[in-house]
Amino acid sequence: MTFLALRELKEQRRTHSRNHRKMFLNFSPSDIEKDSLVVFGILFFASEETVMVLENHLLTNRYIKNDSQLVSMENASIVTGFILLGMTDNPWFAVLIFGVFFIVYIITVLGNLGLVVLIGISSRLHTPMYFFLSNLSFLDVCFSSITTPKTLANLLSQLQEVSFLGCVTQMSLFIIFASAECNVLASMAYDRYTAICHPLLYHVTMSRVRCLLLVAGCYLGGLINMVAVTTSITQLSFCQPHTLPHFFCDIPPLLALACSDPWLTQILVVGFGGFTLVTSIVVILISYLSILMTILKIPSASGKQKAFSTCGSHLTAISLYYGTTMYTYLQPYRHGFQAGNQMVSVFYTMMIPMLNPLIYSLRNEDVKVALWKILRNSH
């Protein structure tokens, strides 16, 4: 073969390779799936260099969504656990936070369990209103116990790890009790509406069986939310390092850590969570608007004061709980998890469960009378 013939053959291979590259670069991953036979035929005659061009092109189209975001499969791995960054790296400040949270948790447990026991042993409080209140106190104990003990342990530990199973379990229980608490608050509003607007039908409408069914529905709604959201989150892949900028396994930081697109999980969280929040808020608003209209028709000032005092504590608890949960969960999650979100989380996981028994006992005459009666009889 002469030198000119060899040079001409090399030029033909370069032209052949360039043509294949142009052809491949015009293909998208969806085109290749549709025309797989054509592409296979091209690959059969393609050079190794052209195949590498195709591979790089497909990987780029698949994993680069835009110029500012590169999601590579190298960053995703099988998750065995997470590292909770907690609230502070300062050991002295961690001890201070531990002391505050420990006191808050003790008050929460003693206050709520004390209210449950008081309602159980006082015949004066054996009414539908206090039946729902005892369930609210039980939920507050569970709600706080899911997160606070682990947070206290992590504050004194140098390695704040949680297994994947432990993280999913904590998140699942959290969803159940948070959703159930929304439903219980709505049931309490409906109970107050029936008691004030239809007092003659109150004991018929709020019978023991109906109250039990309402509470069972509250927990069932929380269970449905948990199954939908948790199942979706466990299907996600998470980017390394597996660190959560939070003090417990919550939904927003987990979604912010996801390598795979969490759009379905976001839809489920906003859909199921939004449905629970919106329906319970609608029930509460309709109930209290009707209550307000009825109270304004009461001629005596003492009657109005008693009705307002009965509803005032419930409205306070509702405002605190719904305000913080809506701020946390009904917003986009892909912008990271900020320190301000941690403070809001502290408020609804620790402070509100502590404040609820104080709100209901200090502003409720029936609870105070029942408590003083038991204390007097004990002496």
Automatic annotation (TrEMBL):
TM stretches of this protein: 70-87, 93-118, 130-148, 168-190, 211-233, 263-296, 308-330, 342-362
Xref: CDD domains: 7tmA_OR5-like (cd15230)
Keyword check for Transmembrane helix: yes
Domain G-protein coupled receptors family 1 profile: 111-360
An example molecular function term from Gene Ontology annotations: G protein-coupled receptor activity
Keywords: Cell membrane, G-protein coupled receptor, Membrane, Olfaction, Receptor, Sensory transduction, Transducer, Transmembrane, Transmembrane helix
Coiled coil: none
Main location: membrane
Membrane topology listed for this record: Multi-pass membrane protein
GO cellular component: plasma membrane
Subcellular location(s) per record: Cell membrane
Family, per entry: Belongs to the G-protein coupled receptor 1 family.
Protein name: Olfactory receptor
Species the sequence originates in: Heterocephalus glaber
